[in-house]
Design a protein that fits this description.
The complex is a heterodimer of chains A (302) and B (135).
Chain A: E1 3-10, H1 14-21, H2 31-35, H3 38-48, E2 52-57, E3 72-75, E4 79-80, E5 95-96, H4 99-111, E6 117-119, H5 126-136, E7 145-151, H6 161-176, E8 183-189, H7 206-214, H8 228-235, H9 243-251, E9 256-267, E10 270-279, H10 290-293, H11 295-301
Parallel strand pairs in A: 1-8, 2-7, 2-8, 3-6
Antiparallel strand pairs in A: 1-10, 3-7, 4-5, 9-10
Helix pairs in contact in A: 1-5, 4-6, 6-9
Chain B: H1 6-11, H2 24-29, H3 31-39, H4 43-51, H5 53-58, H6 64-72, H7 75-80, H8 85-94, H9 99-104, H10 111-119
Helix pairs in contact in B: 3-8
Bound molecules: fe (ii) ion.
Fe (ii) ion (FE2) binds next to loops of chain A.
Chain lengths: 302, 135
């Protein structure tokens, strides 16, 4: 049986990918940002060793233009190439997918009344590849399979925080019903506070960001109720990406324990946040839907 | 959570100082503008655009205002005309500008001033949360 071993929250700031790719991790400007990942890189390599990551991120007008705006899309391909975001693709390994688990999750989620979009072919941008770099550093090949889960946080309205949390819970139920023994992590990426547009650009809110990190730990569900307008006012127009972290948090079940935490300002225009969480007992509530609770329906998708 | 209708949901966005939330209304207005920007993801298109911006823009069904703002790289106006920052990023990347360089042009600060503000911890939200509440 597959199980969710840990959840990671991490900003996906493009310039960190650039710093890595051009060997600038140890420069004065970037060192404090990268140092916060030393613990995680070691832990990933020596202890956690996940088989698969469900990597929640958003596309930044790379794979999707304005012609299609999926709210929740799951990548079911064998592989995903790093996207050319305007200056050539990042020189990082091709991302290997896990089509069996991806389709299992997609089908399970739909029975659980999350109407997913399935993507059979897609390039992945910095939103997905930067967190991989932060957690694995320099590698010939990513030592893990990745299921991209793209969330619309660009065109309003994005999904609510509550919906994201509930999706995480449904992902946890789906993972648990996958027969193969797999060590799975769920990552939520983006944020923390930043605004890339208009006269208010450059906004950073350390207090709010840290309160957000605090509330990912333990059994509080307060973050489910934070409305979009609060992210916008308090954390800048692009701070809304933090709703994606709630998918990760929801997937960890009732309660979490923090293994590692890091916050640093600034990286380019953005507050860098990073947290590693462990589920206390992996308990998520049963599916509230008829199909999701229905044994016969479950049997058809296994 | 109490239910909120889409009208009051959207109305609140206009109360945030110095911010254009990318609503459906803006997305519809800026559809062609953003699709034009997206075309610059391809090297051959970047090259053609750089060679002759006016001629390249002739191929796109954008408004005269959008065209003018594009040629002037007036990003605040482009946001008003339905541009989205992640799409407009293709334009400033083509110009060889970083996010910090391009974003600073929307703030009325020089790149150096903006960079210094970021290095000092960024712009405080105090006084910039709500126009009505002045907080
Ligand atoms: Fe992002």
């Amino acid at each position: 049986m597959a199980r969710i071993q840990a959840g990671i929250g991490c900003s996906h700031i493009p310039v960190l990918g650039f710093a890595h790719d051009t060997d600038k991790e140890q420069t004065d400007y970037f060192k404090p940002a990268f140092d916060g990942f030393n613990w995680t890189r070691k832990w990933m390599k020596e202890e956690a060793k996940p088989d698969v990551i469900v990597l929640v991120y958003n596309d930044h007008a790379s794979a999707f233009d304005m012609s299609i705006i999926p709210t929740f899309a799951i990548g079911t391909a064998e592989k995903f190439n790093p996207a050319d975001e305007g200056f050539g693709p990042r020189p990082v390994p091709v991302v290997e997918g896990h089509p069996d688990l991806a389709w299992h999750i997609a089908q399970s989620l739909i029975l659980d009344e999350f109407d997913m979009t399935m993507i059979g072919e897609m390039d992945v941008d910095h939103g997905l590849t930067v967190p991989l770099t932060m957690m694995y550093g320099d590698v010939e090949k990513w030592p893990v399979k990745v299921i991209p889960l793209a969330v619309n946080v660009v065109t309003y309205p994005p999904p609510s925080g509550n919906r994201c949390w509930a999706l995480g819970e449904a992902i946890a139920r789906a993972v648990e019903s996958f027969p193969e023994d797999l060590n799975v992590q769920v990552w939520g990426t983006g944020g923390l506070s930043h605004q890339l547009q208009g006269p208010r650009a450059g906004l950073i809110n350390k207090e709010w960001d840290n309160a957000f990190l605090d509330k990912l730990i333990g059994d509080t569900q307060e973050l489910r109720k934070v409305p979009h307008i609060e992210y916008l006012r308090e954390t800048g127009s692009e701070g809304i990406e933090m709703v994606m972290w709630l998918i990760m948090r929801g997937a960890l079940g009732k309660s979490t324990k923090a293994l590692h935490r890091h916050y640093h300002v600034p990286v380019s225009n953005t507050a860098l946040g990073h947290i590693v969480l462990e589920p206390v007992d992996n308990s998520v509530p049963p599916s509230p839907t008829l199909e999701g609770n229905n044994d016969a329906a479950q049997a058809m998708i296994d | 959570m109490s239910k909120q209708d889409i009208h009051s949901y959207l109305a609140e966005f206009d109360d945030i100082p110095g911010t254009r939330v990318y609503t459906a209304k803006r997305a519809r207005k800026g559809y062609q503008l953003n699709q034009f920007a997206m075309s610059l993801m391809k090297e051959e298109n970047r090259k053609r655009f750089k060679e002759n911006e006016e001629a390249y823009l002739d191929e796109w069904d954008i408004t005269p205002e959008q065209r003018k703002a594009l040629l002037a790289r007036d990003y605040n106006t482009l946001l008003d005309l339905g541009g989205n920052i992640y799409f407009l990023a293709k334009v400033f990347s083509t110009d060889g500008l970083s996010f910090v360089q391009a974003v600073s042009t929307m703030t009325g600060m020089s790149v150096e001033e903006y960079q210094a503000m970021m290095n000092a911890g960024g712009r405080s939200p105090v006084g910039l949360r709500s126009i009505k509440e002045k907080n």
